[in-house]
Amino acid sequence: MRPDTPAENVDHISEAARLERTAELYPEDAEALLLRAAAHRELSGDRPAATALYDRLLASGTGLDNPFLVRALKASNLWEYGHEAEARAIIDGIRTAAPRDPAPWVIVAEALEAHDELEQAHEAFTQAAHLLLTGVTEPPRATHPLLFGRHRVRRMLGAAHDEWDALADSVHTLPITLDELHDPKRVWSLGSENPAELEAEITRLRAELGAYREALSRPFPVAILRWPADELAELTEAYPSLTEEYPTYEEHLAAIETALRELSASGTPNLGIVTGTVPSYEAFAASEGAAPGDATLLPQYATTLAARGRAVAWPPERGAECWCGSGRTYGECHGDA
What we know:
There is one protein chain. 59% of the residues lie in helices and 4% in strands. Helix 6 runs parallel beside helix 8 (144-157) and helix 7 runs antiparallel to helix 8. The chain is globular. A three-stranded mixed β-sheet has the order 1-2-3, with helices on both faces. The protein starts with 11 loop residues before the first helix and ends in a 24-residue tail after the last strand. The protein is mostly helical. It is built from 16 helices and three strands. This is SEC-C domain-containing protein.
């Protein structure tokens, strides 16, 4: 169940509890699972419980994949139920640390924006843009919300377009322009008695909602299972029946790329790759009461890993390292048609 599911269609408290129980079973995936649980806690209105989950992650003593994102989400949540001073202190700490991941920047800047701190929001968006996008001609998809958020805040401040705004326009793909989407006067059209104005605003809102749903859907892709070379060798040695599924490592990699390209050509969105390990797979097989040598378990295992937030989006960004782990760029490796 996705955290953006309407409250009338899901019991957010029960879903949060389910995710927390799952995190106990899979501690290696606790970060992704507990972040989703915290989102459900926030949507249920239990913001102190969400903060407790963020604190649990930060105090876990294990290496988090993105500790700054956890801190940013905690700050945003704290501010929503009256802990402004603590939220501001966390935001200042994140900005000082200057993480190289765009997600924490988006969260803290939008938190400032939501509380009418437009100048500070603009400063945070701009600081992140300079840090992550200086000299970049083709911004990675993960940085697009930075550019769009900065454009939105500048429109509200009445600032003239600059080079970052032009870059935001260049990566914007919806039929409604950013200038229209971020027009501060749009809110007034919602009270208009002119049907044409209302219809135009509904079109803009649908475009925004489409972009929002697309962004939310990305962490939950259709995933293909990949085995590193050493794990695949261990797997097929322990379970020889799987050599029929995986004749050689090279054929395994080629089959992944072929399957993903075929899915993409058929119009399947949000494709990804999950990486398996033998101990994890054996534990999954045991939980299903099945033998690890049963090849029908493999797609179920892949789906489970994806649901636990382990999928990496395919295809990689242009110039990014290939998904296979060769160390070469995707275009030089499996992306070379």
